[in-house]
Write a structure and sequence with these properties.
By secondary structure, the chain is an all-alpha fold. The chain is 97% helix and 0% strand. It is built from two helices and no strands. The protein has helices spanning 2-43, 46-136. α1 (2-43) packs antiparallel against α2 (46-136).
């Protein structure tokens, strides 16, 4: 289990590193494209501006894809934590339910034993009274 946890942690770290690298690359490309766009607006033909605009749109799409992937990864992590929590809570509730059931059974046995004891005491007291009454006669 510890090795598996370490592998999971390494996998999560690798996913985060990959997402950060993709975000950084797409962001740098996006910023570079915008900087080039400003320069080209002043000196280049409209055809090059259209190509630049297409490149910018591509970078924006890539950025959107990376952001979506990070969001999906967060949601998966959240779902996994929720599943773990549900299993843990269900286990705790099951233990508590069994304890409560045993406690109710114990209380019921104690009440029955007390009722039997009181009945036996009453019968013993009645026998004693009858025996004393019989001795006096």
């Amino acid at each position: 289990a510890p090795g598996q946890r370490r592998r999971r942690a390494q996998w999560r770290l690798a996913q985060q590193f990959r997402a950060a690298r993709l975000r950084r690359a797409s962001w740098c490309g996006f910023v570079h494209s915008l900087d080039l766009g400003r320069v080209r607006k002043l000196s280049l033909a409209p055809r090059l501006l259209a190509i630049d605009r297409a490149c910018t749109v591509g970078c924006l799409r890539l950025w959107h894809h990376v952001a979506e992937e990070v969001s999906c990864s967060r949601q998966l992590h959240k779902d996994a934590v929720m599943q773990w929590f549900v299993v843990l809570c269900a286990s705790c509730l099951d233990v508590w339910r069994r304890w409560l059931t045993r406690r109710h059974a114990k209380r019921l046995r104690q009440r029955q034993a007390r009722a039997l004891f009181e009945a036996a005491e009453r019968r013993a007291a009645a026998r004693l009274l009858l025996w004393r009454f019989d001795e006096r006669r």
